[in-house]
Amino acid sequence: MPSLRLLAAPLLALAALSVSLSATAQSKKELVQKLLQLQQPGIESIARTVAQRPAIALMQDAAQVLQTQVPADKRQEVAKTIEGDLKKYADDVVPTVQKRAVALAPVKLGPVLEEKFTEDELKQVIAWLESPVSKKYQQVVPELESTLAQALVDDTRSSVEPKLKQLQQTIRKRLGLPPLPAAPAGSAPVSLPKK
C-alpha cells in the first residue's frame, strides 16, 4: 500500500495544475471582458445600425410616396413631420438596442473570443487597441472611408447612373406609376434619399 507521502506529491501537483488552469481561465475571461469593453463603441455602432435599418427603409419608401402621391405644396411639411417621427423613433429605440447589445456581447461574443484566441493573442489585441497608433488610426478611418466612397461614386457614376435610372423606371412601372420624364443632358444625377 502506497504511503501518504507518495500520494501527497502527485495530489499537490494536480491541485497546483488545477489552480493554474483556473487562474488561466479566469485571466482569459478577464482579457475577453477587457477586449469587449474596448470594443464597446463598435458594439454600440452595430446596435445603432440594426435599430435604424427599418426606419431608413421606411424613410426611403416615404420619400418615394412623397414624390408621387403627395401634392407638391404639402411635400415639405409632410417630409418635415416624417423626419420628426423618425428622429423620435431613433431617440427612443437606439439607446434601448445599444444597451441590449452591450449586455449581450459578453454572452454571445465572449465564448467565441475565448475559443478562437489564446490568452497571449488577447493580450496582443488589447495592446494594439490601447496603443496610440490604433487610436490615431481609428480617428482617421472615417476620413479614409469617406475619401474612398467619394472616389468610388465619382469613378462609377457614368456606368451606375443609367442602370439606376432604368431600375427607378422599372419599379415605377411595376407600381403602376407614370414614368419619370427623361432628364435633359447635364441635369442632376439621380440621388437616393439622404439619411
What does this structure look like?
This protein is elongated. It is built from six helices and no strands. It has two domains: 28-118, no CATH class; 131-176, no CATH class. It has helices at residues 4-38, 40-69, 72-108, 110-116, 119-130, 132-174. With 195 residues, it is an all-alpha fold. The N and C termini lie far apart (80 Å).
Topology:
Elements: H1 4-38, H2 40-69, H3 72-108, H4 110-116, H5 119-130, H6 132-174
Helix pairs in contact: 1-5, 2-3
Region (Disordered): 175-195
Pfam families: DUF2059
Domain DUF2059: 111-150
Task: Spell out the key features of this protein.
195 residues; mainly alpha; 2 domains; 6 helices; 84% helix; elongated; disordered N terminus; DUF2059 domain-containing protein; signal; DUF2059
